[in-house]
Amino acid sequence: MRFWYLEDHARLAAEREDLERLQHKSIYVQSIEWVLIDGQLAFKAAIRVNGRDYPLEFIYPNLFPHVPPIVRPQDKIVLGSGHQYLNGTLCLEWGPDNWRPSVTGVQVLESAIRLLRAEIPTGNVYVESVPSRHRLTLGQELRTSKWRLYVSVQMLLNLVRLPHTTLARIKYSLIKRPDSALAVIDEIAAMRDGITAWTSEVLPKSVCTESGEGFLIKADIASEVLKNISDTISLQRVLEAFGINMKSAMGSRPAVFILTDAVQYLRAFYVDTVSGQSKLYCLANLISPADASERRLPTELDSLVNVSVGIVGLGSMGSKIALSLARSGVRQFTLVDDDVFLPENICRHALDFRDVGSHKVDSIKNALLRLGHGFNFRTYRANITEQESTSYLAEILDRLGNCDLLIDATASPRVFNLLSHVSTYCSKPMVWSEVFAGGIGGLIGRSRPGIDPDPQTMRLVFLGYVDEQSESVPSGEVNDYTAQFNNEVLSASDADVTAIASHTTRLILDTLADATCSQFPQSMYLVGLRSEWLFGAPFHTIPIETDQFVSDQVPAAMSEEALRDLDAFLKAVISRS
Residues 38-72, buried b or exposed e (16+ Cβ, 10 A)? Predict the structure, then answer.
């Protein structure tokens, strides 16, 4: 640890001289005593303002003058100022947001004196509060509030549209976490006619730990009355004025009550019964600046909600691709993998310890469901190149053939061969990728019918390119990503796999968005992550040209007689079925 006062002697001398001058000329500074507080240089100052003494401690952080000093009461009491943090520190004219090293300690101390003079007078003299220069972020405002209510723009607009005096039932969902709890209003239904006034889908049901009902009251309730509700008794008094008996309304279940005045001052409460006693939790308003349904994605991805994607292999690569595609807007998935998630998979996988022991396809499906609404899944716990029922295999391949795009995330030549046949036969684009052993880089490729060579041809082009370089393809266990280079064992990290998965996802999105207007001049790339093999440096990207291998062959035409014979054959079969 470095200490500024042991290194910057000139600044220390200037701070001492300035403070001595202030003490001699100021009527407010009664005494100064230099001390060390937790190894930090500090002084204790007795400040007298309006006939009252304020013992302050002024601490120079070890990184001073690059960070501002700390000024607070010596006993950390609340002074009654609107410019004091919960830990006792005063909020002065200079803080982390506008600090500059040229500001001196004396200037900060003078700021504290001005605050005390203006905001904490004695006697019956009224003094206006000092205007605040601060605008807290949403996170700063909520960090001391464990219980929260999500308030969307759409919810606020619908509250405004409700009649001036409204008593409505509500339905809510709740997420309880160790550090916080979030309530979300799912429905507001007017009680007088039962018509649903507003419904919302924000939380995926799979993430909710509780759901229930409650009441919303919009009326001429004074904001001071709302502010003073702090327990079940004060809440019950307000509810009784509208004919609601809290205990009868709740029964044995928790409930949420939302009260709002005519000008939309809103307070919400979660009431639960603990050991036979009702307990009230005040919900802090988590006001979102945008509606949850608002898209923050490029417009060219809007059509993804209508496309279906088939992914074979939900390991480290496939899991990351699936989640990224879902965040980009894809909602229809066919997932194929027979593997079970194990603790040793965690180092590179998108899943975590909650999923150990489950099939990867099932846990990935659950992870996708936590990202939003509108998903449509078909999952298969199958290995399509090992011993499986032929009928089961046929069903899987038929399902994959009906997808709008196929993804091979296995790095298995056998899977690649099988999927390439499905891609070619069904005229569906296919994307594949693999991380080379040791995490030195990866291969990304795609085949679009009518634009690129078929996947098998593209694989041959890749192997031919590598052969021309007089190099062999780095190999290793598919799920291990380890190899030895220069007598050193290298393992691919999560960052290595994530890098290749991200590039793969971009190629997939480009293919789905518009096959005729691609941002990628080539359809196969080698992406380097280390200075090994063909890669001269990290991020060295090698495009592999494949345009010249696109086949323009047309199937040989059959004679009219042969076609008539086939037609008759098929009609006979169909008639007997």
Answer: eebbbbebebbbeeeebebbbbbebebbeebbbbb
Contact 461, 544 (CB under 8 A): yes
CATH topology of domain 4-135: Ubiquitin Conjugating Enzyme (3.10.110)
Over residues 340-365, the pLDDT tens digits come to 999 999 999 999 999 999 999 999 99
**Do the Cβ atoms of 393 and 372 come closer than 8 Å?**
no
Any idea which residue has 């990202």 for tokens?
A: 371
Are the C-beta atoms of residues 460 and 516 closer than 8 Å to each other? no
Prediction pTM value: 0.81
For residue 156, which of 250, 270, 285 has the smallest C-alpha distance? 285
Tokens for 376?
């449509």
Give the burial class of 310: count Cβ atoms within 10 A of its Cβ; 0-12 exposed, 13-18 middle, 19 or more buried. buried
pLDDT digits (tens, 9 = 90+) for 505-558: 999 999 998 766 899 999 999 999 999 999 999 999 999 998 777 665 555 677
Write out the H or E segment, with its range, that includes residue 29.
strand 29-37
Alpha helices, H only, 285-434: 316-328, 360-369, 390-401, 413-426
What residue spans define the domains of the chain?
4-135, 140-287, 299-549
Are 423 and 415 a contacting pair, CB within 8 Å? no
Which element (helix H / strand E) includes 14? helix 9-25
Structure tokens, 488: 């050193």
- Which of helix, strand or coil describes residue 287? strand
CATH code of the domain made up of 299-549: 3.40.50.720
**How is domain 140-287 classified at the architecture level of CATH?**
3-Layer(aba) Sandwich (3.40)
Beta-strand runs (E) in 134-254 = 147-151, 166-176, 181-190, 196-199, 210-218
DSSP codes joined into one string, 45-70? EEEEETTEEEEEEEE--TTTTSS--E
Within 8 A by CB and 6+ apart from 89, the residues are 70, 71, 72
Determine contact, residues 22/15, Cβ cutoff 8 Å: no
Under a CB-based contact definition with an 8 Å cutoff, are residues 312 and 418 in contact? Answer: no
Nearest by Cα to 145 from 30, 303, 284, 291: 284
